[in-house]
Amino acid sequence: MKVLFVCSGGMSSAIVVEALKKEAAKKGRELEVKAIGTNEVEQEISNGWSVCMVAPQIRHRFDQVKEQAVKVGVPCGQIPPQAYTPMGGPKLLQAMDDILN
Amino acid sequence: MGGFANWLDKKLSGPMARLAEQRHLQAVRDGVISALPFIIVGSFFLILAFPPVPEDWLIAEWAANNVTDILIPYRMTMFIMSLYIAFGIGYNLSKSYNLDPLSGAQMATAALLLTITPQVVEGVGYTLPMTPMGGNGLFVTMIVSILAVEILRFCKTKNITIKMPPQVPASVSRSFEALIPVAILIVSISLVTVALGVDLHKLVEKMVAPLVAAGDSYFGVMLPVFLITFFWSFGIHGVSIVGTIARPLWEVYLVENSAAVAEGASTLPHVAPETFFQWFVWIGGAGATLGLIISMLLFAKSKYSKTLGRTSAIPGLFNINEPIIFGAPIVLNPILIVPFIITPLVTASLSYFAVVLGFVTPTFTMPPWTLPAPIGAFLATGGDWNAVLLVLINIAISVIIYTPFFKIYDNKLLEQETNEEQNETVNA
Question: Is the ipTM of this complex over 0.90?
Answer without folding.
Answer: no
